[in-house]
From TrEMBL:
Gene behind the chain: asnA
GO molecular function: aspartate-ammonia ligase activity
Organism: Fusicatenibacter saccharivorans
HAMAP family for this protein: AsnA (MF_00555)
tRNA-binding as UniProt keyword: no
Protein name: Aspartate--ammonia ligase
Length: 337
């Protein structure tokens, strides 16, 4: 269990029944805003994939996917619960015959058994995964920033909508999101850790998109880990907002322009996992079968938590929690779903 933050004097403004109503309000409104701005079509998505396809997200490379044996496959076969749909979405756009400028989104539900739970982390992950086909000419920072701004406008409009619906909610998101690279951030705060830098810039600016996540910085550290075979580390980033209820930097989305063949080769080599190039998904990038795309994940429970001003993610999602967490929540009269 991670450290639990209990805000002084915190009390949920909504009971369990009204919280469920508000969760649906947030999700319905934001989905409409997101799909309208990015021109996305809703699709169904897998809960599990077979590891030999290379479609599962390896995250930071140290997490262990939840797996199980498929009993009716003849020979012994294993399936893994997805850790995200970062790779599957790009494959789906090709398989389903989508064209340039078109995109998809879906509910992604995952189990991350290695997650250390706290106010904003759960072993159950629920997010909107989205992906869109782009032109080769759009493979640049300007296009990435433009897409981030579209998503940020959807977030701002959702906050305004919730403030109109509930009198205890005030709008706190700034008018514009601030862009900075991970190296610029390190240069700005060289004596801070990556997480301390993230918190400091986010509290100062209110909403930040930290770009170029995954590669090694001048200090020899990484701002954060990234799997080498979906985002291009020079064209990605995290969308983070300051959350005053907990006094933290709250990541709402991770996204980026996806690897092309050149970026994939470089990043696989840097991570020492060139063997992945033999897997079907990775081979399809190297041989040019898959389209060039941009995509990301947006945390559903985190967005609900932020817009409803909740202190713990368990107030907006059903999961399992350590006994110590439940005892603390009971003492503080914070009701978990």
């Amino acid at each position: 269990m991670g450290e639990i933050i209990i805000p002084q004097g915190y009390k949920s403004a909504l009971n369990l029944h009204d919280t469920q109503v508000a969760i649906k309000t947030v999700k319905d409104y934001f989905q409409h805003e997101l799909t309208h701005r990015l021109h996305l079509l809703r699709v169904t998505a897998p809960l599990f994939v077979q590891p030999e396809t290379g479609l599962n997200d390896n995250l930071n490379g140290v997490e262990h996917p939840v797996s199980f044996e498929l009993k009716d496959q003849g020979t012994k076969k294993t399936a893994e619960i997805v850790q995200s749909l970062a790779k599957w979405k790009r494959y789906a756009l090709h398989k389903y015959g989508f064209s340039e400028g078109e995109g998809i989104y879906t509910d992604m539900n995952a189990i991350r058994q290695d997650e250390v739970t706290d106010n904003i982390h759960s072993v159950y992950v629920d997010q909107w995964d989205w992906e869109k086909i782009m032109s080769p000419e759009e493979r640049n920072l300007d296009f990435l920033k433009s897409t981030v701004k579209d998503i940020y406008e959807a977030l701002k409009n959702t906050e305004k909508h919730m403030a109109d619906q509930y009198d205890y909610i005030e709008t706190i998101l700034p008018d514009e999101i601030f862009f900075i690279t991970s190296q610029e951030l390190e240069d700005r705060y060289p004596d801070l850790t990556p997480k301390e830098r993230e918190y400091t810039i986010t509290k100062e600016k209110g909403a930040v998109f930290i770009m170029q996540i995954g590669g090694v910085l001048a200090s020899g550290e990484r701002q954060d880990g990234r799997s080498p075979d979906y985002d291009d580390w020079s064209l990605n980033g995290d969308l983070i907002v300051y959350y005053p209820v907990l006094d933290i930097a709250l990541e709402l989305s991770s996204m980026g322009i996806r690897v092309n063949a050149d970026a994939l080769r470089v990043q696989l080599k840097e991570c020492g996992c060139q063997s992945r190039a033999k897997l079907p998904f990775q081979k399809s990038i190297l041989n040019g079968t898959l389209p060039q795309t941009i995509g990301g994940g947006i945390g559903q429970s985190r967005i609900c938590m932020f817009f409803l001003r909740k202190a713990h993610i368990g107030e907006v999602q059903c999961s399992v929690w350590p006994m110590e967490t439940r005892e603390v929540m009971d003492v503080m009269n914070i009701q978990l779903l």
